[in-house]
Amino acid sequence: MSSTFQRQTSLLTPEIDEGLYSRQIYVMGKEAMNRLAHAHVLISGMRGLGVEIAKNIILGGARTVIIHDCDKVQYEDLSSQYYFTESHIGQNRAKVAVEKLSELNSYVHVTHSSDVINETFLTTNKINVYVLTDAKLDHQVLVGNYCHEHGIKLIIANTKGLFGQIFCDFGEKFEVLDTNGETPITQVVTEISRDDIGVVFMSTDTRHGFEDGSYVTFQGVQGMTEVNDHEFKISAPSPYTITIGDTSKFGTYEGGGTVTEVKKSQEVTFKSFSDALIEPDLLLCDFSKMSMPSNLHLAFQALSRFEKQYNILPKPWDEPDAEKFYEIVEKLNMENRDKPLTDDLNKHWIKLFSKICTGDLCPMQAVIGGIAAQEVMKAVTGKFMPVRQFLYFDAIECLPENVFQPSDTIPKPRFSTRKTRYCSQEIVFGADFQEKICKSKYFVVGAGAIGCEMLKNFAMMGIGCDKEGSIYVTDMDSIEKSNLNRQFLFRSWNIGQMKSKVAAETVKIMNPNMNIHAFIEGVLPETEHIYDDAFFERLTGVVNALDNIKAREYIDRRCVYYRKSLVDSGTLGTKASVQVVVPFLTESYSSTRDPPDPSIPMCLLHNFPNLIEHTIQWARDNFAGLFTIPAQQAEEYQRNSRKFAQRTSTNLSEYDRNEIIENVKRSLGQERPKNFLDCIKWSRNLFEQQFHNTIAQLLYNFPRDHKTTTGERFWSGNKRCPHVLNFDINDKTHLDFIVAASNLLAHIYFIEQIRDRQYIADQASKISVAKFQPKSGVEIFENDEQLKSDMEKKRRKNSIVDDQSEEEQINKLLIRFPKHDEIRNIKIRAHEFEKDDDSNFHIDYIAATANLRAENYEIQSADRSKIKRIAGNIIPAIATTTAMVTGLVCLEVYKLIQGHKNVESYKNAFVNLALPFFGFSEPVPPTKQKYLDCEYTLWDRFDVQGDMTLEEIIEYFKKEYKLVVTMLAAGLIVLYAPHFMRQSNRSQDMKRKISEIYETLTNTKIPSHVRSLVLDFTCEDLEGNDIEDVPYIRYTFR
C-alpha cells in the first residue's frame, strides 16, 4: 500500500501554502499534507451533516471536493445547514451550498452535482473517497459494495436526533503509516554497554517512554559508531534503559548520541459494508454504556425497515410507533445470525431512538462531521488509525431528566403549530425548550477556531435569538492568514480585521434573529468596568474558547463568583477535551491543574545543551536579549528619562540595574550602527562571539579530557563536548545568520534593509575579527544550583543607600545613563516577536542560531518549520478536532439550559481522533469543607446586603452564624484587626461604613460600576476557639 501513496505524491504536487496550512502541517506532517492535496472527494448529501464534513475537508486542503444532492432545501434543513436561509427553500441543496463552500479555500476546487452518481461519474472525477450521508440503507449497501470492489475509500455518516453513526471501509489492505500521531520519542544517550544484550542508558531525569517491541535508531554516538543510523528492535526492562541486542563486537562507547523512536506502519483489513452489517466491528465510545453500540447498530438498520413497512418514518415522541420500531429491532437482532447480536437489548434506548430519530441537531452533526472528516483525511494520507469499522455515538443525557425516571409513558413535548427554522430541533426537545434556548444569554470568550465553530452552533441552535436573548463574544486579536485554515467564519479579505466583529457579522447572516454583541476587550481584572456585576449577572452561562491557562483560570474565578455555568474546551492537534462546570454540582476548572511543563535548566541552555529543543530555546532567548529588550529599554528612557530612572532605582538589585544601564548605553551609544555595513560588521562579530569564542572559553575552562573531582570524565552523560565553528561564508547557515542578524539590527535603527545575499556575503567575507584569547578567572557554572547561588549573591549587593531620598537616588542614577539631550532624537524601535511573518527575519534568525549552536554541540539540526513551532510555542491545530469538540460543548449547553440537576447527566470528555479514542466521565463534585456544623464548597459564601459599619457586620456574624470576627480584609487591605489597631482608631472605625474604610485605606474612590467587595475574614467560635476555614463574604454595599 505504501507504493500507492508513493505514486500519488510522485504526481505534480500542488504548491502547499505553509502560511495557510502551518498549524495543520504540525498535526499531519508535510508528506500527509501533500497526499491530501491530491485527494478527490465526493460528499453526497448536503444537509447539516454533509455541509459540516465538506467544510472541514475544504479547509483541510483536498484537491477537489464535489458536493452532491438531488433534493431541495426544506424548512427542516435550517436547524443545522448554516449556509441555507428561508429564501433557499425549494432550490437544490448542492447548488445552494457550493457558493459559500467555495469561499472557504481558494486552493480547493469545489463543484456540485445533482445528477445520479454512477460508475462513469466516479471514474471521470477520479474519486478517491466517497462520503455518503443521509442515505437509505439499500443505497448504502449498493454504494458500499461498489466502492469495496473498485478500491474507493468509503465513509458513511448519519445523525438521527441525539444518535450518530460512522462507517469506514478503506479496502482489504490499507496501510496506516502513523498509528498514534505522537511525535517520535528522542532521548539523550548516556552510556551503551558492550555485551551479548547491549543496554542503552539514558538520563534518569525523566522516563524514556519507549515500549517493548518498538524500533529505534541512533545518531551522534561516539566510539560505538556501529549503532549510528541503524534500526534496532528493543526491549524496555526499566523506565531509564532499553536493550538493543548484541553489542559485544562494537566499539567502546565514548559519549554523545541520541536514540529516536522509529515509527512502523501497520496493515489494516476492512470488510465491505454489507459484510460488516452482519458481523460488525464496533468501536466503543462510552464505557458507561457498553451495549449502546450494538443497540444502535440494530436501530439504524431498523429505521429503513420501518419506512419500508409503514411508508413513513416513526413519528416524533409517538408511543405506538416506538413499540412497532422496537419489534423490528427485536427481529433484526436474530436475523442472519446463529446468536443475537446483543444479549442486552435496551428497550428504553430503542424507543427513544424511534421518538427523536427524525430530528436534526447541529451539535450532533458537528461531532459526527468532525470525526468523519478526519476519517476522510486518514483515508487519503494513511495518517492515523481509522475507525474500525462502525462508530456509534449518542448523547441521550441531553433529553429532559424525567425521560429516564421509571414510568410507563414519557410526556410528549409540545410542538409549534407552524414550521420554523428550529423545527428539526423541536422534534427532539419540543417548543417550550426552544423558547427557553432562544431567550438564553451566553458569553463566548474567544473568537478563534473554537469560538467560530461555537458561534455557528449557537446560531443553528437559536441561542440568544429571541429579543430577550443575547450572545456576547469577545476577542482581542485580529485575523491573520494562518487563521483561515480553521477559523471558517473568516475570509482572506478579512485579514487585519478584529475577529469578534467579523465573527459576529458572519453568524448574523446565518441566523438573522441572533442578538449578538461583539467586544474587542479581553476579560481581565483591568476590564471589570466592562464585564461588571450587571454584565455577568444577566448571563445564562459562559463558554471558553481560549488558548491559555491564565485566561481560563480568570474566567473560571469570575464564573464561580457569579455562580454561572462554564464549559471549557481545548484542542491539541487531534486531541480535545471538554470540562463542564455547574454551580454547586461540580468542581471548578481551577480545582485541579495539570502539572506544569518541565522547564529547561539554565546551565543546560547556556553551556550544556544536548537536544535541539535546548538550542531553539536558547536562540529564542538570544533574539529577545539582542533585538527586543535593550531597544525597549532605550525607547522608554528616551520617552521619559526621569520616570525610567525612578523605576530602575526601586525594587532592583545593583546587578539588574547595571544590566539595564548597559543595555541603554549600548543601544544609544556611539557604537550603534550608522549604516547597513555597520550592521554586517556587528553581525559578523556576533557570530564569532556566540559560536566560536564562547565555546572556546568553555573548552578552555573544561578541556575535552577534563575530569571531575571524582575522576570521571567531565564531558560524559548528558554533557556533550562542543567544538568551535569557524566562519565560512560558503556555508548556507552561516550566511543565513549574518543576513538575518544584519537586517534585524538595521530595522531597529531605521536603516534601510538589504536582502541581497550575495552583497552581504561579499561584505562579510572582507571583515576581520579579533583572534580569540582565553581569559583566566571566567567562572562557568556546572549546574543550576551554582548559578542560582551566584545570582543571589550579585542581587543582594545594592549600592544605593537606603537613607537617601528618592530624589537623590534618581539623580545619582541619571548620571550613569547617557545624557538625555544627546540621545533623545536617535530613532530606535524594538522588535516584537512575530512568528507568522516570514519577511521579518525573526524565525530566520532563530532558525540559523539554533542550528549553528546545535552544530557546536553535534546535535541533529532541525528544519525551519519545527523551529518555528517550538520557538513560537505554536499549538498544532486542525479543523476536524475543533468542529468535533465544539459539538461536544454544545451538547452540554443543552443540558445546562434545561437545568439538569444530576451530576451524572453531564459529561467531561477527552478525545484523540488519531487513535481513535473517546473517553467520557462524570464531572467531579466540589470538595466539601466544614466550619462548626456547616458544610460548604467553593460555590458557597456569605452574602451580606447593604453597607454596614464594622460594628454592625461583626455583630451580624455573631448573631446569625455564631462566628466572632477576628480579622477582616479586602484583598491585601486589612479593614479590621483589633490586635494591631490603636484603641482610638478602632473605636472610630467601628462606627464607619466598610466602604468608607476601604476608600480611606486605598486612597481611592470605589468605581461606580463596583457594587460589591470580596471580603475574607478569620474568626473564632463563641467559646474563643479558632476556626480554620470559612467561606468568603460577598459584601454588596450598593
Automatic annotation (TrEMBL):
Pfam families: E1_UFD (PF09358), ThiF (PF00899), UBA_E1_SCCH (PF10585)
Associated pathway: Protein modification; protein ubiquitination
E.C. code: 6.2.1.45
Chain segments annotated as transmembrane: 963-981
Keyword NADP: no
Domain spans labelled Ubiquitin-activating enzyme E1 C-terminal: 906-1033
Record has Ligase as a keyword: yes
Keyword line: ATP-binding, Ligase, Membrane, Nucleotide-binding, Transmembrane, Transmembrane helix, Ubl conjugation pathway
Name of the protein in its database record: E1 ubiquitin-activating enzyme
Organism in which the protein naturally occurs: Rotaria sordida
Upper classification of the organism: Eukaryota, Metazoa, Spiralia, Gnathifera, Rotifera
